[in-house]
Write a structure and sequence with these properties.
The complex is a heterodimer. Chain A is mainly beta. Helices cover about 10% and strands about 55% of the residues of chain A. In chain A, strands 2-3-4-6-17-8-11-12-13 form a nine-stranded antiparallel β-sheet. In chain A, strands 1, 5, 7, 14, 15, 16 and 18 form a seven-stranded antiparallel β-sheet that branches. In chain A, helix 1 packs antiparallel against helix 4. By secondary structure, chain B is mostly beta strands. Chain B contains three helices and 22 strands. In chain B, the strands form six sheets. Chain B has a four-stranded antiparallel β-sheet with strand order 17-1-19-20, with no helix packed on it. In chain B, strands 2-12-6-7 form a four-stranded antiparallel β-sheet, with no helix packed on it. In chain B, strands 13-16-14-15 form a four-stranded antiparallel β-sheet. Classes of the chains: A mainly beta, B mainly beta. At the A-B interface, strand 10, strand 13 and strand 25 of A face strand 1, helix 1, strand 18, strand 19 and strand 21 of B.
Chain lengths: ~450, ~270
């Protein structure tokens, strides 16, 4: 439910809120309730909604919150409103008419039965009295207002009084659901009671003939009871077994079909979807690009190998390097190495010698007749250095690089074609802003849930 | 007694539960004023004589072929193919496809076109509902074989057409099944020697379809006026039951509910 929904529907149906006298949604809000009274008599009240033409009027009294203590009254009021509606089983809800006439008013009530249905008054402002004109010495019955309620059978009824006496009209062909939106509209000679079926999109109405002088009055509108009903004789006596979800009071007569639309606002949620920008591309022209043929534009030569060419005669090369040390006895043969470097040839040569110990002083005398003895050699050894020989043949030569051919490809000067490319620009489109009301209120309570068979029952 | 209620439940929101009041349980109205006489479209009976059925439907409700469910005297009819034989001066209707009636929204001026062997008169009661357009699937039952075999055959045929009735159970779950106008329920079939038209019609969405031996039904929420009711397979007029809130304890019939008390004002005067 949203007050925005009601506001929109009031605007659509009536043009402005000028005729919106009172609206109560019974959702507890600390700045929409108060406690009035004094001298140990306090009653919680619900302030008129700011949506109304003059919200300072029609403060509604919640009789169920009456207490001698202000704080208790306040707590009780909060408790009665804790479920987002007003429980009328604890007491009626009374709205002073404050300028509204019972014969020129329209009321929408969104109510819900609490348990089983028992007869009771939903909107009551009916009363009768005796009038005496002393001048003419005349006595007659007077009345004001009407009672609209529900019968034990679950049908709406309307109770009025006129010159022909009491009248009760029952809306027998409309079955009520657990939750219902109904309306009462009154003008000079007729009173219209309507029931709204939002699931079938229907308005069911009865028109009750009235006489203005017997209906007109300016007392209080009593929701849940009446000053005159077979089950109550004062506004403090509750008769209705249920809760109020919403009450809308409009000045003047408004037809039931319009009130149904206004009531739809009570059950709707308002939604607004802002415009959404979407970017698009569009072609603004074309650009042309000349393309050229491709092909062989030359060759590249790269070294692919080398070729060696001998340019001189062969010559021997060689060298020696130190190897290991060996023991040689005197008279044992070994080689002594020499390096040869004559500028063009670098090699070595060796000389085979017999070993003479370095401590011998190189003076020998024969000691016998054998070979060794003849030479006077001693039986001692001494370490000598041995060498490793490296020798080869060299020739003078030159190295020549070998080249291979590689094709080079590229763009030729010859035109092969033209490429046409679209030129684009970005532009934006916007969706329409969407706002509206959707009937998202829970539907279960508006449905029926009992089928009673009228055929032959066993 | 088998009482079958088909309740339109909608969803959890008011918007999602809205239904046109005229979609269900409309009464075909009888009128001789607008017959086919004078029309260039003619229906002939099986004898070749002009047939003059005079039941009308609302153009705003039945807007085309295969979008209605029609019962005559509680027996549900299969809508058939509309055939029109055109000649130089007159056009001759016939109902094909084993159907019992057809709809011609363009030329029949809102008149039901019943098959050549289905005669109607002023005493008949015709109920019709709007439904989403789907043609029914028909299987002609002969005396051969068991009835359950015929049901299986209809399920196979229905599945061939719509692809969602691969078993007999699925067919009964998704389709209303009728035999010679009487609604059937799974496992509760006529004797096998019975012959006639066995057909299936797709059920609407968002419904609670249940059968019970209990006289009254409690607790299942539904949208008022959107209830179809079959007693022993025969469609009943919605006047045969009340659609209420369970909080109503006292239901009495034949009690006057509207009254005006004559209670003149008493004036006394002394002159």
């Amino acid at each position: 439910m949203s007050s925005t929904g009601l506001s929109i529907k009031i605007e659509e149906g009536l043009g402005s809120n000028r005729r919106l006298s009172a609206f109560y949604d019974f959702v507890y809000s600390s700045n929409e309730v108060d406690v009035l009274g004094g001298d140990s008599e306090f009653t919680g009240v619900i302030l008129n909604d700011s949506l109304c033409n003059d919200s300072s009027l029609h403060t509604g009294y919640v009789l169920g919150s009456y207490d001698s203590l202000e704080s208790t009254s306040s707590n009780e009021l909060a408790s009665l409103l804790s479920n987002g509606n007003l429980d009328l089983r604890s007491g009626n809800f009374i709205v002073p008419s404050e300028g509204l006439s019972f014969s020129d008013v329209s009321i929408i009530v969104d109510f819900e039965f609490s348990e089983g249905i028992s007869d009771g008054v939903i909107i009551g402002c009916f009363d009768k009295g005796i009038e005496t004109n002393a001048g003419f010495n005349l006595t007659g019955v007077t009345s004001e207002g009407f009672n609209v309620g529900v019968t034990e059978r679950g049908h709406l009824f309307c109770q009025t009084f006129g010159s022909n006496g009491d009248s009760i009209e029952v809306m027998y062909d409309t079955e009520l659901s657990r939750r219902n939106l109904i309306s009462v509209s009154v003008y000079d000679s007729a009173l219209q009671v309507s029931s709204f079926d939002y699931l079938n999109d229907l308005v069911s109405s009865i028109d009750v003939s009235i006489e203005n002088e017997y209906v007109d009055g300016t007392g209080s509108l009593i929701f849940g009871g009446s000053n005159l009903y077979h089950r109550s004789s004062s506004e403090t006596e509750g008769t209705f077994n249920g809760t109020l979800n919403n009450v809308v009071i409009l000045s003047g007569f408004v037809d039931g079909s319009v009130l149904k639309d206004i009531g739809e606002g009570l059950l709707s949620n308002y939604s607004y979807t802002a415009p959404v920008e979407t970017q698009h591309q569009r072609v603004t022209g074309y650009s042309e690009t000349i393309t050229y043929k491709t092909g062989i534009i030359g060759y590249d030569y790269n070294v692919t190998g080398t070729l060696s060419i001998i340019t001189g005669r062969e010559y021997i090369t060689g060298s020696f390097t130190s190897s290991s040390a060996e023991l040689k006895e005197e008279g044992e043969r070994y080689y002594k190495y020499y390096t040869l470097d004559n500028g063009s040839s670098k090699t070595f040569y060796k000389e085979e010698l017999g070993k003479l110990h370095s401590n011998s002083g190189y003076v020998y005398y024969p000691t016998g007749e054998g070979a060794y003895d003849t030479l006077g050699l001693n039986d001692i050894s001494e370490s000598i250095q041995t060498y490793t020989e490296i020798s080869g043949i060299e020739q003078d030569k030159i190295n020549i690089d070998l080249y291979g051919k590689t094709l080079q490809t590229g763009v030729l000067s010859e035109i092969s074609g033209v490429i046409t490319s679209p030129l684009q620009e970005t532009f934006s489109t916007f969706t329409e802003a969407v706002s509206g009301l959707s009937l998202t209120e829970e539907s279960t309570l508006f449905k029926k849930d009992f089928i009673y068979y009228l055929g032959v029952r066993p | 007694m088998n009482l079958n209620y088909i309740l339109y439940t909608g969803d959890t929101t008011i918007t999602g539960s809205k239904k046109d009041i005229f979609d269900s349980n409309q009464i075909g109205y009888y009128s001789l004023a607008n017959s086919f006489i004078g029309s260039s479209y003619i229906l002939l009976d099986s004898e070749g004589n002009r047939k003059n059925d005079s039941f009308f439907f609302d153009h705003e409700i039945i807007t085309g072929s295969y979008s209605s469910t029609v019962s005559i005297n509680s027996q549900t009819l299969l809508e058939g193919r509309l055939d029109i034989l055109e000649s130089s001066n007159k056009n001759y209707y016939s109902v094909g496809g084993s159907g019992c009636y057809s709809i011609d929204p363009e030329n029949s001026e809102g008149k039901f076109i019943f098959s050549e062997d289905l005669y109607t008169d002023n005493d008949d009661e015709i109920l019709y509902n709007y439904r989403d357009p789907y043609s029914g699937v028909v299987s002609l039952k002969s005396s051969n074989g068991t009835f359950s075999n015929s049901i299986t055959s209809l399920a196979q045929k229905t599945n061939t057409v719509y692809g969602d009735a691969s078993s007999v159970t699925l067919m009964f779950e998704k389709y209303d099944v009728f035999f010679n106008g009487q609604k059937l329920y799974e496992g509760d079939y006529p004797i096998s020697s019975a012959t006639g038209k066995l057909f299936s019609v797709k059920k609407p969405d968002k419904i609670n379809d249940f059968s019970s031996d209990e006289i009254d039904s409690y607790g299942s929420g539904f949208v008022e006026n959107q209830v179809n009711f079959y007693s022993n397979g025969l469609e009943q007029n919605p006047e045969d039951f009340l659609q209420l809130h369970t909080g109503v304890y006292m239901i009495e019939r034949q009690i006057p509910v509207s009254m005006q008390l004559i209670n003149p004002i008493t004036l006394t005067s002394s002159i």
